[in-house]
Design brief:
The complex is a heterodimer of chains A (about 290) and B (about 300).
Chain A: H1 6-49, H2 55-59, H3 72-103, H4 108-120, H5 125-139, H6 146-170, H7 174-182, H8 187-216, H9 219-224, H10 244-252, H11 258-288
Helix pairs in contact in A: 1-11, 3-6, 3-8, 3-10, 5-6, 6-8, 7-8, 8-11, 10-11
Chain B: H1 5-55, H2 60-65, E1 69-70, E2 78-79, H3 82-113, H4 116-131, H5 134-152, H6 162-185, H7 189-197, H8 202-213, H9 215-231, H10 234-239, H11 257-266, H12 274-303
Classes of the chains: A mainly alpha (about 290), B mainly alpha (about 300).
Chain lengths: ~290, ~300
């Protein structure tokens, strides 16, 4: 009895090999399609907006006239927003991560906090806007100020920072910790002087990526009621302000064709902003990352 | 070694402080860690309380089963949420049709075929694609995809479900691709090599070994991506329109749940009006939808995981 029909195998072999090549081509094409989408997106926006980019665009306030519209208030506003979001979210995120990795006992409360963080990451950003509107804008009476928006954004990116900081802390080898404790250092001294310095590149990289998400987020700001047309710069965190994505949204949703060019120019500014932040994150990752 | 009395006192005082610090630090850190729990509680309480206020003015049955959404009407306001849900589902359906095949195909390519060099180029590109702000995608949908579609199918309106659906699909491709690729990469090499040694082609290994073994992870990635698509706001606000309709037409203007919240927020609805409370009721519905999806994703990846 023959278990393998030689002729059968040979007959089917060609078909199988052809299928292999065809599907490899299909899978490759799908991958290239994703890249093509990115190239197309970048190309469209640069060709649309580059013409409107100028120093005047950066130094003018927004205007009813497209040719005069500038992005100054939004650019400065986004920087103000970051000045609130960065310290708030990093302190809260790194603090939570230290607690979860170093102090938390394995009990129900801890696992509840962990599950909660994972679920919070899946809540749509616009729902965070509703939270901010009720708690910060109304209950704390902060109005549509930089502080109210900053707190809302901080809560939005908190899960991302916690997870990144947890990973960074976890990757610090146990020997370092044990050596420090063995030399007589207290737990907190070990954390501050040994673990955090070793984990800082990872924490910073994760935080910067999270912050760049906050810069591009639009929906929560709209819900909070961040205005669009602002002809002055904020002087403090309790002032009202506008931000890059809000300004772009306003220009993009105007009916006049000319404003599409202005919106594209605004997007270029936003993307350069993001690109700079991401390159800083990559530099930190490559320069300070130690392999233990 | 000699130490003066003063120094010893100073030292012991320092120690006391230190001990106190060591005890306080965990408490402070616990309080910080509970902010994330408070956030969840805050979200749920906010949504529930304001939604209850909304339901004192509009009956729950009208809200859940009404097929007309007319909040800005001068005569009789109608708050039937079904048109908004239909709008959301239309966009999500198209996004899934676009993203699932492309996302899984690129995941297979990256995990089974691609060389290390190709992976090093493609993965960062996918990361960039995932990092593009949604407002940028929205602008792209409105000013590029919609005109392109209109030039091929003239019956498509300026605001429709197809264009934002396609672009939301592009937005969630990286999510499906990278999560599915993670799942496929964690399938042990021995199984693959065993199949290859038995004479399977690479495609047969991918399709009959890797994909079935990683299926729980792949499905979880799709469910998470659907959740993202449901909660997506800016793309649908810019390109979807603001006329909620209870029909199956994809070429006409729609409104999603998220886009309604944006429309009301932009228009500065007075505090205390029914419209003001309606955004919380819609937000709550949205929250339940995404929460269910996230729970489902967790369940799928846990329940159907193949352990090796």
């Amino acid at each position: 009895m023959r278990y393998i029909e030689h002729e059968q195998v040979v007959k089917r072999m060609n078909g199988r090999l052809v299928a292999n090549v065809i599907f490899k081509g299909i899978f490759l094409a799908a991958t290239l399609l994703a890249i093509l989408a990115l190239v197309l997106l970048a190309y469209r926006i640069i060709t649309q907006g580059a013409g409107h980019l100028s120093l005047d665009f950066l130094s003018n306030f927004s205007s009813r006239f497209p040719e005069k519209a500038g992005i100054k208030a939004a650019l400065i506003g986004s920087l103000w927003l970051m000045a609130v979001v960065a310290p708030t979210s990093i302190i809260l995120g790194v603090g939570s991560a230290i607690y979860l990795e170093e102090y938390a006992k394995k009990n129900k409360i801890t696992s509840f906090i962990r599950i909660n963080i994972a679920n919070l990451a899946g809540v749509p950003s616009i729902v965070f806007g509703l939270l901010g509107l009720t708690i910060f804008v109304r209950a704390f009476a902060l109005g549509n100020s930089i502080l109210a928006a900053g707190f809302t954004m901080s809560l939005l990116i908190l899960p991302v920072i916690i997870v990144a900081a947890q990973e960074a802390i976890r990757s610090v080898p146990g020997e370092l910790r044990e050596a420090s404790l063995g030399m007589g250092a207290t737990k907190w001294q070990t954390i501050v002087k040994i673990i955090l310095p070793a984990a800082i590149p990872g924490i910073l990289t994760g935080s910067i990526l999270a912050l760049s998400r906050a810069i591009g987020e639009t929906a929560p700001l709209i819900v909070i009621g961040v205005p669009v047309i602002i002809q002055f710069l904020p002087a403090g965190v309790l002032d009202t302000f506008t931000a890059l994505p809000i300004q772009i949204f306003d220009w993009a949703s105007r009916p006049q064709q000319e404003f599409q060019t202005v919106a594209a120019a605004g997007i270029i500014v936003l993307m350069i902003f993001l690109l700079l932040m991401n390159s800083v994150a990559v530099i930190i990752r490559n320069k300070f990352q130690k392999r233990y | 070694m000699r130490t003066s009395v003063q120094e010893m006192i100073a030292q012991s005082k320092g120690k006391k402080n230190k001990k106190f610090m060591e005890k306080m630090i965990p408490v402070i850190l616990f309080l910080i860690a509970s902010v994330s729990v408070l956030t969840t509680i805050g979200i749920v309480v906010t949504l529930v309380v304001e939604t209850i206020t909304f339901f004192t003015r509009v009956s729950i049955a009208d809200f859940l089963f009404g097929t007309t959404w007319l909040p800005f009407s001068n005569k009789e306001q109608l708050f039937g949420i079904l048109p908004l849900i239909i709008g959301t589902l239309k966009v999500t359906l198209i996004a899934v049709i676009v993203a699932v095949p492309i996302g899984i195909a690129s995941a297979i390519y990256l995990s089974e075929y691609a060389s290390e060099t190709v992976r090093r180029i493609v993965k960062p590109v996918l990361e960039v694609l995932a990092g593009v702000p949604t407002i940028v995608y929205g602008f792209f949908a409105l000013t590029f995809v919609t005109p392109l579609l209109q030039s091929v199918f003239p019956e498509i309106k300026i605001f429709n479900a197809i264009s934002p659906g396609i672009v939301v699909g592009i937005m969630i491709i990286p999510m499906i691709a990278s999560l599915s690729e993670d799942a496929m990469s964690s399938v042990p090499k021995q199984i693959r090599e065993g199949a290859l040694a038995m004479g399977s082609t690479k495609f047969e290994v991918a399709w009959k070994i890797t994909v079935p073994a990683a299926l729980s992870g792949i499905i979880a990635s799709i469910v998470l991506a659907v959740s993202r698509a449901i909660g997506e706001t800016m793309i649908v606000s810019l390109a979807g329109g603001s006329t909620p309709k209870f029909n199956g037409d994809f070429t006409d203007s729609i409104q999603t749940m998220t886009a309604y919240i944006v429309q009301v927020s932009k228009g500065d609805a007075g505090y205390g009006t029914t419209i003001y409370y309606s955004i919380y009721a819609v937000g709550f519905t949205l929250f339940i939808f995404t929460m269910l999806m996230n729970i489902l994703a967790g369940y799928v990846s846990k329940r159907f995981r193949e352990e090796y």
